[in-house]
Amino acid sequence: MIPRIHKRGTRTIGLLYYLYGPGTDEEHIDPHLVASWDNNAPDPGRDANATYRQLQQLLDQPLDNIDGASRPAKHVWHLSVRNAPEDRTLSDDEWGDIARRMVTAAGIDDPDQSAGCRWAAIRHADDHIHIIATLVREDGYKPDLHRDAARVQAEARLLETELGLRRVNKGDGTAAKRPTSAERHKAQRLGKDRTSREELRETVRRAVAGATSETEFFDRLAAAGVLIHKRVAPSGDLLGYKVALPDDRNAQKEPVFYAGSTLAPDLSLPRIRQRFSGDGDTSDQSTGAPSDHATAPAPSGPATARRRTATTAWETVLVLDGGQDAQVAARIAATGEVLDALATTSAAHTRAELREAAFMFERATRSHIRAERGHDRALRQAARDLVHSGPALGRGEDGATTAMAIDMLFFLVTATAHWHAKKGHAQQATAARKATEHLGAAYQAAANFPLSVLYQRGLRLSQPLRQKQIAHLRAAVPELTEQILAEPRWHALAATLADTENAGHDPAALLAEAAGRRELGTADSISDVLVWRLRRMAGLPADATTMPTHPTAAAKGSGRAVLPAPSRGNGPRQKR
Which domains can be identified in the chain, with CATH numbers? Predict the structure, then answer.
């Protein structure tokens, strides 16, 4: 249940016309009164003899009982209360009780003293009501509305429990502004899955991902095709900006502009400049974590960017728990930039899920802990590399390193969810957890083919060589060996261990290092995780089709194996 206090107004009759009217897109169905300060208040929705003017005059009558100089400049108070889409449809009586409790919690009404304000609750849809009130009490005094928003939110949490509705996490004031009902209906009418506000927020986020200057930021916005209006001071200094979609027009056929700060708190020009100011700080050239001891081979640009992104993401995971709050907040914000950049540049079969992951994670990038810029430098550089390397192909090294990057980012986003949960940031933790669900789906799409190649190679290993890899496994991770051997993709890990030995590494030592970097007991597929860690650390191509077959690595048989269809739980996604 989401209560929202709207801006105060001056015209009671105007708001009544809207609440009882058809709405901006005929979305108001059967408008009628469900509760009010007076059980005999006229209801223009159900009583043919009642008028809007009669209801307005009764609501505003307390204004006539006080001196004009004492009247509030804006006397119309407006609250909407909306349920979640999955909630059951409440009856009029239930909505009426909700309205009474909301006005009491806010301080609009005081049933015990019979000296509250006049108010009316109007329902014109199954899932929400609107409450209108006049901000002068019957005794001529003004109501005490101190912290009215916090009080109605607290009442909503109680009502959710009592009525068996979806429980909404408590907000902290750092969320982006929700689209209005008019914006949502407009998007539906135009056949769009997102409102203009949401589409523009995503476009601006992508434009700022890894950008290093205002010029680059605005150039990217222009290239994305949005309309840009800059606010310039008389001195010539840039003060702010607004953006609009070319096809989003108002009734006067003018573009509907949104300032960056109204899209999200961290998309205002001053907040964006803070990201640029941190790029020149050399205090955080590395995360402080031990770096992997092999660099990537020289595949195509997108593949190189993805491999480096995987390394940066993993090094960030290693220091996230022990970092200072402001430094962690900066790294989490930059992780959002990496997700935006990866979604923008990835192949079609992973793009939709990556886009949803970035869209969900956006809420996790902001909290009341202020980010200390400069500590996000490595992640912002990874985002920049992704953008400048261009679109990736769906197969080959591009596709395989996409799976590698998603695997590492999954653990980073999971670590973010845990960090927010420890800090009591409920909304941010929930957003990060939802992002992991989409990352898991994107991972399956990206990883299935490259892992199937490794799986087939693993099945063709000779029996002595396969036993050798099992011995490496028992030496490196004895407590996890049986679980790994029971996993469908163990053969892909066996092939990778053989590749590391052919490349001159000690498989057992490398495996122990890879497993020791972070616990693996909760991973749904330990084999998958270790495959990508080992191939990255050993500098092996992510796409195993480019690996030469070692004379001892294959049996003489020529049978072709097929990788078992992965369950939804396979991949890096962790059990919760």
Answer: 2-163 (3.30.930), 181-279 (no CATH), 301-546 (no CATH)
